[in-house]
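[step 3/7] fold_predict: job queued, chain A
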Amino acid sequence: MSPPDATAARWISTFLEAQAAERGAARNTLLAYGRDLRDFAGWAERRALPLTTLTRADIEAYLVACDAEGLAATTRARRLSAIRQLFRFAWDEGWRTDDPAAELRGPGRPGRLPRTLDEGAVDRLLAAARSHGRTEAERLRNTCLMELLYATGLRVSELVSLPLAAARGDPEMLMVRGKGGKDRLVPLSRPARAALAAWLALREADEAEARLTRRPSSRFLFPSRSAAGHLTRHGAHALIKDLAVAAGLSPDSVSPHRLRHAFATHLLAGGADLRVIQTLLGHADISSTEIYTHVLEERLRRTVLDHHPLAAGPADSADDP
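[step 4/7] structure written:
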């Protein structure tokens, strides 16, 4: 529900329009911004605090109120981010001569590191994909799906919705449409190209037969009978769980996003530049990619603690003569 304050309503709607037009913000992002900003504006209006004169102390009081409501740190951080962007926009537009939110820092996000898979686990998953399936077509599809996930670090939603046209011609790179409708190129490894070529040959044969028999064809690389016309996120998720079981891994330890984390972590461990990984993952902000440096640091720390002879402390032995 829009806040009663006409100025606040105008600020929020104009800000959201600019986010959509200038930054290509996704619909879900705009909905989240709108909910957070309307909550903030409603709180301010109930206290007779117009956005035109609201102070840093007022914003801090709102954050304290959010904390008192029991809102999670991630929710409070997201709300502060929306507020900061709104007031920066208001300053840019000349609606205010200052930015009361500029110096505010939120509670931050929890320091949980993304869980990933080691190279041995990935190898077992890829081997399971090559042998798991009732038919040769299913095995080729499974192999292509898994090889592409690991080789590109794509979000599963980006992969399952890939059009067939994007894969034709034995490409060395795929053009992918990511969040906010932004396109990016991702290179393919040799195993991924081989798996894609094998699956594409079967798909092309199926498309040719569809044309001859006048049955509907699919424009997607991974077609299905779903409403969307392609393999769904849930379908891919369930398939990967099945492959984990076939590979002798716990299904709870494997997911499409874990493979995305593995892609980034293994690249970084191999010496890839963080900015390159940011581009490949489609992260708008480098801070989203920097988490993988912490994952690598933690892996190195565990390696030392597990294998260094002095990691457990000094031995109870006499000095060497």
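[step 5/7] annotate
The radius of gyration is 25 Å.
The chain has two domains: 6-93, 119-306.
exit 0
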